[in-house]
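Listing S7. Sequence submitted for prediction.
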Amino acid sequence: MTFATPVRDMRYALDHMAGFDALQRSGAFEDLSDDLVSAILEELGKYCDNAVAPLNWTSDRQGAVLENGVVRTTPGFDAAYRQYVEGGWNSLAFPEEIGGQGLPATLAVALVDALNGACMSFAIGTTLTTGAVKALKAVGTDEQKRLYLGKMVSGEWTGTMNLTEPQAGSDLSGVRTKAEPVGDGRYRISGQKIYITYGEHDLADNIVHLVLARLPDAPEGTAGISMFLVPKVHVNEDGSLGERNDVACVGLEEKMGLHGSPTCVMAFGERGECYGTLLGEENKGLRNMFIMMNSARLDVGVQGVGVAEAAYQRALAYALDRRQGRAPGVKAGEPVAIYEHPDVRRMLYTMKSLVEAARGVCYANAVAYDLARNAPDEETRKEAAALEGLLTPVSKAWSTDRANEVTSIGVQVHGGMGYVEETGAAQHMRDARIAAIYEGTNGIQAMDLVGRKLQGDGGAAARAFIQNVKEQAIIAKAARRDDVTAIGVRLEEAVAALETSTEWLLETAGKGQEDALAAATPYLKQFGNVAGGYYLARGAVASALAANEGTADAAYHEAKIALAHFYADNTLTEAVGLTAAVTAGARVVARLDPELLTA
């Protein structure tokens, strides 16, 4: 099976689901024509299909290795990365004044989608660099930007995010890495970080680590964390590379998946000679790191979309090739492709509709990100920022949870062969599993949704989103097609349930947080189910209009309507039932004596 970047589906999601035309109308991107977008997506597809996708199988079998302090990546990664840099892919959405191409971040999200479908192990390193660029651009000094930003924007140098320590996972209040001032604006860094993606590799001449550490006499907890820029190789005043810094990878994690992505244990200052510079203000490191983290959370959601797309493509190809059994009601004759069996189609339609729903949510999140920063009027920027904040935890958590679901179904479609590594179905499932964990576990995302995002503005953003969904349901119900009308009916039922859950949470949170926190995960799933249905319904209405015009794409649009209808009957109906789980509150997780839970 050969992966093919779903260029047509990506463009469909942009144009008919996510509201990309709002960016084009805004005037913020003067050269953003339809032809330019098409050309970018077509070239992206060629690069991913030809240079990256062939590496996926190899990356699982010949992953990164540590040899005498040097990390060797999967054979072929170096050539693919050179093409990535030479093609200008890393600079796509950065401002022209820092060496970028000045295009919308939404197109960079489409890039993340395609790269992760082609090879998730390769793709993950690129997103860490773009996130580091955003943090450096936002809070770096003029000198730091002069020395590092250009090379990082181009991708010639890569970046990392160093948060986690053995004793400090999601709770960063326990960070112990130290930073001591030594004069001339430099700090001596000492400590160890774990789970550092692409912390060491052979793809670039320099790696720029963004490291959380504590200054002497810093306040306890997260209030005392600062962020430091620590290069693998020091940079001279003229921008040339100098001496190697006292930074080393001392181990690679052995993981269930993403074998091609080096997940490093990093030692800073083992010889007492690791130096870096303060990035941003003292004791504001966590706030500054969230510039990078929020970018990463959307990217991780799109990682889920990409790997789920790859799993779907593999399952569909197998279902069309594998012949077993006979069509319903047929007692004799040759076996048919298993695609002809209704339950296999049910699995495949589930996979496809979830992928498209998640793509719609993530792309809409990206459009909101762009509008929040580039729309010409303040009111549009304000509304977009509220939507961006609301959708970010949903994009990250709901999309990656669905990726785990989709890749698992992909194994099921293969039957026994799915449990055998040679088909490749298991790799997608193993690779996808981490996405629900890193950049803030999905439980943390759910708590963020019901906490800061829902309660922070008194529910204003959530209510505005719910109103938009209601209006879309009315539009779909008014369509002169029974299938689109049925989508509108299901969407109306689901958003009513979401509204009930939302109002209950807002009321309950005022009495204490325990009920809201216990309800967080089912609420995020309900919100995601409805959001996915909303964007699919927008697409279905647009497709109904296109199909009525009798264009050459009419069959394609009919398929989109059918998938949205399938989602409405199978996933929006699930959203209705989740209100009971949300409103059950904390009683369902009341503490039981652990001894009563053992055999």
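Caption to Listing S7: primary sequence and predicted structure tokens for the chain studied. The chain has three domains: 7-154, 158-282, 441-599. The longest strand covers residues 186-197.
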